[in-house]
Design goal:
The chain is an alpha+beta fold and about 280 residues long. About 20% of the residues lie in helices and about 20% in strands. The longest helix has 18 residues. The radius of gyration is 18 Å and the shape is globular.
Length: about 280
């Protein structure tokens, strides 16, 4: 068990839409596989759960006090790590396994309740935090939520990727969890493609907090004249947890050129099963 001094930790302000902290464990690098020229091609994964909403909980009929003992009823939670993980694990596991785990993929409210329980577990796994939820909406990390999935028996392991080529290659094995710094300008995508790159002045808008998102498709893959990945024209699509009113029916996109700009504050994890499941 590493101590807090072994971890790289960057905390962000927890926001009703945002609640991810950047936590890196050096042991995770054992699960990194350097890119070795493998084929990279477009791929898409379909979450079985509907688009979720970590806000307007009371309007959805969600009482957090009925989900986690000791919790107060609140209208929003900084539970983006668990919402993103719920989408990703719904790709990884088959329908029967998800049902046995208590995740109803047919109902957005039921799935959001499940994600809230997972958020509680993730805050407990983040032992470096001075508080857990409940009572404090303290946020969590990608590391904490994959540990929570593993403790529930829903994943066997996770891999990490730290370069654009590694991240793009790993889409062939499934959806990914991305933890990113979220800029103020990104709350409102302004193009039909919901491409964050196209939002003018995003770099000057300031970081609002940390956000966890489900990367569900390597949508476009382009290479330059030297057969290197063309970062500007290689596009990832993400599932957000702010209802279908956000972006493109709840999704948005960014290029790997943007990833490269914010990479110092990004962590990418891919939950995995040792034995492939039926999707």
């Amino acid at each position: 068990m590493p101590t807090n001094s072994d971890l790289t930790i960057q905390q962000y302000e927890v926001h009703p839409k945002l609640g991810r902290h950047l936590v890196l464990d050096p042991r995770s690098l054992a699960y990194q596989r350097p890119y070795d020229g493998e084929t990279i091609k477009p791929v898409e994964w379909a979450p079985k759960v509907p688009v979720l909403d970590q806000e307007d909980l009371l309007a959805q009929g969600i009482r957090t006090s009925q989900i986690v003992p000791g919790a107060d009823d609140v209208d929003a939670l900084g539970s983006c790590t668990a919402n993103a993980a719920t989408a990703v694990v719904s790709v990884l596991q088959d329908a029967d396994s998800l049902q046995k785990a208590g995740l109803d993929v047919t109902d957005a409210v039921a799935a959001e309740k499940w994600a809230i329980g997972l958020y509680h577990d993730a805050t407990l796994q983040d032992e470096w935090l001075e508080q857990q939820w409940p009572v404090d909406d303290c946020g969590s990390s990608g590391l904490g939520v994959v540990k929570a999935l593993k403790s529930r028996g829903l994943i066997d392991q996770f891999s990490v990727a730290t370069t654009a080529e590694e991240v793009a290659r790993d889409f062939a094995a499934g959806a990914e969890l991305w933890g990113v710094p979220w800029f103020q300008a990104w709350f409102e995508p302004t193009t039909s493609s919901a491409l964050l790159d196209d939002i003018k002045g995003w770099e000057r808008s300031g970081v609002a907090g940390g956000h966890e998102i489900a990367a569900i498709a390597l949508e476009d893959v382009k290479f330059d004249k030297t057969d290197r990945l063309d970062l500007k024209r290689t596009i990832v699509r993400f599932r957000n947890s702010w209802t279908t009113s956000y972006g493109d029916e709840g999704c948005f996109r960014m290029s790997f050129a943007l990833y490269q700009k914010i990479r110092a504050q990004v962590d990418v994890k891919q939950p995995r099963l040792d034995i492939a499941s039926t999707r």
